[in-house]
Each structure stands twice: as C-alpha cells, then as structure tokens.
Amino acid sequence: MSEIAIKSSLLSVVKYPIFRVDKSGLILECHVHHKFDAIHFAHRLEGRNISEFDYLPNAIDVVRFCLGNQKTEVTYFSVPDNDGAEKYFEAEIVPSGTDEVIAVVKEITQRKRQEAELIQYYNLIQNIYQGTSSSTGIAFMDHLTRQFCKAFNGDFSFIALFDNKKLSTVSYATFNQILDNETFEVEGSPFENLHQDDIISISADCLLIYPDFAPFQKHEIQGLIGIPLYYPDEPSKPAGVMCVMFEKFYHTFQHYEKILQIFSTRAAAELDRIRRTQQLEASEEKFKALYHNTPALFNSVDREGKITEAGDFFLETTGYTRDEVIGKMAFDFLTSESKEFGMTKIFPEYTKTGYCKDVPFQFVKKNGEVMDILFSSVIVKDEEGNFQKSLTSLQDVTEINRRRRDIIKSESRVSEDAQRLQSLFDHSPVGIIIHSKGIIKKVNVETIRLTKAKSSKDIVGKSPMDFIHPDSQEVASQRIHNIYTKKTAHKNEQKFICLDGSVIWVEAMGTLISYEGEPAVQIAIYDITDRKQAQEKILEDEKKLKQLNDHLTRQNNQLEEFAHIASHNLRAPITNMMSLIQIKESAPDPVTELFVWENLKKGVANLDETIVELNEVVKTSWELDKRKRKVKLSVVLQKVLSSIKNELTEAGGEVISDFAAFDAMIYPKVYLESILINLITNGLKYARADRPPVIQVYTCIRDGAKCLEVRDNGLGIDVNKFGNKIFGLRKTFHNHPDARGVGLFITKAQVESMGGTIRVESEIGNGSNFIINFGDV
Question: Which residues contact 100 (CB under 8 A, 6 or more apart)?
Fold first, then answer.
C-alpha cells in the first residue's frame, strides 16, 4: 500500500479533526472525519488563518510558543452550537519541524460539564453557609429560600409552617426575587398526609393531581420537590415544609437527597431558633423554663467570659454537671484551635457589634468527644445600655458536618473508583467492547489483541456486527435487542471475525450500562476456540462411533438373518434327500431307484443354487474390496446397459437418465454397477404386460444429501403389506420364474455398508421408485 493510501486509510478512522498550520497561523491542510459534528466545518478551512476565528484569540501565540520551544502545547477554546449552548474543545499542538505544527482537536464538553457540576455543587454548599452566617430571622430564611430554588434550578420555592389546617409561608421566593408571603389550604395539597422523613417528589402533572392547591393554580406548576421540617422537640410531627416548584417537569440529580437534608436542617434550626427567641421575648418566666428545658444548648456568660447559667439540655448534651461549668471560662471548653480563633478573630468583633451568629467552633464534651457546633451569641444590656450578660446558643452540627465530609469523600471515592475501574477495564484478561447506537465507543487492550488490531483506532467507530460471523449475526442481533428491551444480561457463544480475516469462537456476555449519559451495551468476550475445537472433535468422534455402531448393528442383523435363512434353506433339501434315501432302502426296485435318483438330482441342484445365493450374500456383506474411487454415474450406467442389452431388447424396454444434479461421486465402482443392475433388471423383470417398461435413473439433492432414484412403471409392490420385508433375503412378491428374492437384499446390504439408506415408494399397478440416500460420500 502506498504512503498516500496508508495516510488516507488512517485519516478515515480518526474521529478528531487534524490540522497542519504554519508559523504564521495559515491552515495548510485539514482533515475532518465525516462523523465529527461538534463544530460546523461545512466551509473550507484550508488557506484561512486561525487568527480569523474570534474563539481562538491566543492560538497563534501558542503555535509560535510551540515552535520556539519545540515541545507539545495545549490550548482550550469554546464555540456555541446551534442551540446557543457552549461546546468546549482541547487543541493539542505538536511541532512538525521548525515552521509547521500539527493540531489535533478533541471535544471535552462532557468533562467540562462534570467539572462545572462539581464546582456548582461546592459553591452551593459554600453559599448556604456563607450566605446565612451574617443574617438571622427573616433575612436568613429569605436567603435560604432563594438558594434552595437556585440549587434545584426551580421556578418558585417557599418555607411554610402549619397553622391549624392552613399552611403559612415564612419565606416565598424565586431564585432572585422575594415574593409576598401567602397562606394556603392544607387540604387538597401534597402536604395533607405527611409521614416522618418523607421526601415529596412529583416530577410532572402536579396541577392535574392537586387541581385545588392555590400555588399550583397560580403558577401552573408541573413538578415539585419538598421535605417536611421538624422542630427538635417534636420529631414525629412536621412543623412545616420546604419545597421548590417547577413550571415544567424535572429530573432528579446526584446528591439531591443530601442537599434536601442540608437545607431542611438549616431551615428547621433557624425556624426553631426564631420560635425559641420569640418565646423568650414573650415572657421571662417562659424564657427561664425554655432556657433549661428546651433541646438547645443555651448558656449565659458574664462580661469576663465566665459561664453564669447553663441550660439543662446543654448539660445533658455535654455531660457536665452545673457545678462543673458555672464560673468557668466559656472558651476553656473549646479545642485549642477554636479557642485561639474565638479570642483573636470573633471576640473583638463581637464586642463591637453586640452579636455573632453561627460561628463554627469545636466543643469538647466531658467524655473527651469533640462536637462540631455553630456558636451564636447576643449581648443583653440593661436600661442604661450597660453590659449585663451574653446569651449564647450552641447548635450541634456534628452530623451535618459529617454528612458534608461524607459527600466530599464520596466524590473523592467516585473519582478514585473511576480511575480504578478504568485500570481494571484496560488490563482485564477478558476482552471488553462498549457500543451504543450500533457504534463501538470503547475497547480494552485484550480486545485489541483478540481482534488482531494494531490499536483501538482500528476498532472504535465501527459497528460491532462487523466483527460477527454471518453464522452468528442473527443470534447476536437478537441478543443486543433483548439487552436493550429486557434490561437483563445475556450470554451466548458465537463466531468472531478478526481484522486479519481469521475466525475464532468467543463466549460473549452482554450487559446494559450507561456510557456518556446514554444507554449502551458492554460486551465481555472470551476466546473459547480451543474448547469449541475440542467439542467438535468429540462430536466428530461420537458421530464416527455411531456410524460404526450402526454398521455393526446392520452386520449383526444381516448375520442373524443369514443364519436363519441358511438353516431354513439348507435343511429343506437335505431333509428331502434323506427321505429319498429311506425310500430307496425300503423299496430297492428299479422304478423306485430311478425315481429316487431323478429327485436327488433335483435336490442337489436346488442345494447348489441355495449355496450359490448364500455365497453372493456373504460376498456382498463381508466383501473386503470396498475401495472408493471417483466414478461417474453416467459411465457406470452405460456399462450396465451394455451388459444387459439383450434383456433390454427382448423386454422392449427404455432407460432414461438425468444426472444434472450431480454425476461424479466417490464410491466403490463395483457396488454402483451391482446396485444399478439389480434395480434396472427388477424393472424389466416385473414389467406390466400391457405396456413396455420405462425405467428412469436420475440424481437429486434431498435435505442437503446426494440421492439416486430408479423409477419403473411396472407391477409395483404393496408396501403397506410387505413394507418391512421388501429388502429381505428370499422374499418375492410376484410369480416370476426368475424371482429369487436376493437382488434387493444384496442392494440394501451394499448401500448400508457404505453408510447410506435405501427405501421404496410403490403402488400396485403404478410401478416402484427406489430412493438411495448416499449419506456422507
């Protein structure tokens, strides 16, 4: 193959665009695969300069830098597609001499989107904590509601509390706008029958399911995601709900349940804090009761930073007694890192503003366990504005932080698992092919070895059916259909065509997977050629053994029949001769003697004839000279017709032959001659008196086997009456002076000794048709 042909062949399978560019940025040559549709390349690129394209602002600098340093450089760019969405690309620029570079462009849109999704998720978590750290009350709730709407890409969201049979919003917003609070009827809404820890998810048809729910009517809502909110002291009764609504149907995404938990935890905590604060402001007595009994970590600190009061729940949660905390410095219960951070960063600002909210600290319990807390505090002043005390609240966020760390670890594990799975895929001892929509997307190293390819480029982009042998394509096509429709794994054995044209047997296991966001089939293939060859050898040996067994059975049956006939046919003439001898001995007169000698002569002749017939049978059944050779039926027939020319003439018969189906075959010539003589002379011998005999001899193919048919128009045989005796020795079915019942027996023995079969189709008065199936000849 010429260098040009090789180059053309290689470029035809490379799916990425390849450009040759000189140092001025002029595109000297470009090759774009016909299936590459990421960028619209309909216009001619050769002869244009890369500086003409506004989405390649620094490309010419990268080219020059690459040539100047003589090393590969990579640059990135993006192009909007027909729908306005950005597609991202990576251009690998390789120096080709001192004045030219080769640029290979790969689409990395999927990778960029995954990176953007992770960054978006990280930013979302940061926004939740940072955006709410400096606000409380309604401002906090409004920010949380907007972030909730933004996180799920929703159209509307709200946080609402149950009030008798009403649902009153605390915050109602879009992702960038706060709406007026409203009150809705609970009856006929998705929140009518809530269960503990329920996540409400309705992907479509909200308005059809709940036609009377006011927000659905007002905004024509189709989808909804919601979660009930619980106060810590009432974990079995929802205090309210937090939900996001969609004007169109939606799809859930990874980690959405964890995000719901984070938002609901923050919302419930702040609602609880608001509730507690309102209750504290309502009554000092109620404040004191709540201070000690509410499941919140409250304590009071004096101007010097010493704890003066501690709530019961604070003591219960931390494990300390009241005496162990009263009079102690509040910061002494923190870890050394949190204490330093509080003293240097938080406390100076706190003294200026008079409050701080949700400061992350680590609190050390009495048993030594470290508890993650969000520290909030407010300075209480007397009527003259003098410092009286600090009221502090600690929120245990250990579980929330643990979940957040788990999410980060999970993402890290996903990345590690992906790398590990890629390594397992690449180095698996079993060939693996991934294909989607009839195109091979990915293969591993073992597949390259099995297919005898040089690299994955020889395989990727082709149809998987290109590698399936025609004998196995129907089964393989059905297997792929079943995998897609039934979504179950499927295994079968099939013939596999390698790139060099050789054929191997493989065991293929197909499984439905998701690849690049689309359903795909992963096929694991294992070379079982050696096993199949061994199975075929066993089957061949079994076939030969069966043939030998069948042959021995036929020989045994013939031997039994021969023994029976020999015993019967020889006993009768001998018995007759012994009776004649007894007659002669009892009456030795000349007349009797003449009678005895004449009948003895006939008996001896019959005995001789019987022995000759039996000898012919023995010779046919156990003849040693069965040498096969290539013979032509037409030649053999001519020889047979010459040998029976007088009989044919006397009978006025005609033999018609047709060997169009096949003429030549491998067979003992003497057997073919004997078979044709027996069947043709039978046709002459048993011809009808009212018409001349016509015998047809022709070949045909039946069920893939070679057959010879000899048809006559003679007397015919009653096959219903004599069907199982037609080919028996000494069996005759018509009164004919020359009928001995040996010819058909010999013909059957000859055919079966060579592994074939013979049968007859006949009707009385309508002739007979003898059909010989030669079997494996």
Answer: 20, 21, 22, 23, 28
